[in-house]
Amino acid sequence: MTTKKRFDVIGKPRRRVDGRAKVTGLTRFADDVMLPRMVHCKLLRSPMPHATIESIDVSRARAHPGVHLVLTGKDFPVTFGILR
């Protein structure tokens, strides 16, 4: 196989096999799966970049019906990770 033949697809439009299913909404993603007794989570981050969060009042979240667990950074042993 020559080098020219190997690279003749670069820069050319290619039809995606899953394109039609994605644009018509038929594709199922992980977020679309609903199983019995499934628990969902909500991640809340600071809207201010590089800000120091001095305190978080989670009492209303814990008191809300259906809430099983509320975690903050104080609940983790590692101070810095993927998400601070």
Structural summary, described in words:
- By secondary structure, the chain is mainly alpha-helical.
- The chain contains three helices and no strands.
- The chain has helices at residues 3-6, 19-23, 59-63.
- It starts with a helix and ends in a 21-residue tail after the last helix.
- The mean pLDDT is 84.
Could you give a short description of this structure?
The protein has 84 residues and is mainly α.
| Helix proportion | 10-25%
- Run of helices and strands: HHH
Q: How many separate helices?
A: 3
- What does the overall shape look like? elongated
In round numbers, the mean pLDDT is 84
Task: Assign the structural class, choosing from mainly alpha, mainly beta, alpha/beta, alpha+beta, or little secondary structure.
Answer: mainly alpha
Total strands: the figure is: 0
Radius of gyration, CA atoms, in whole angstroms: 23 Å
In the predicted model, the low-confidence regions spanning at least 5 consecutive residues are none
Q: Largest sheet, if any?
A: none
Terminal-residue CA separation: 50 Å
Percent of residues in β-strands: under 5%
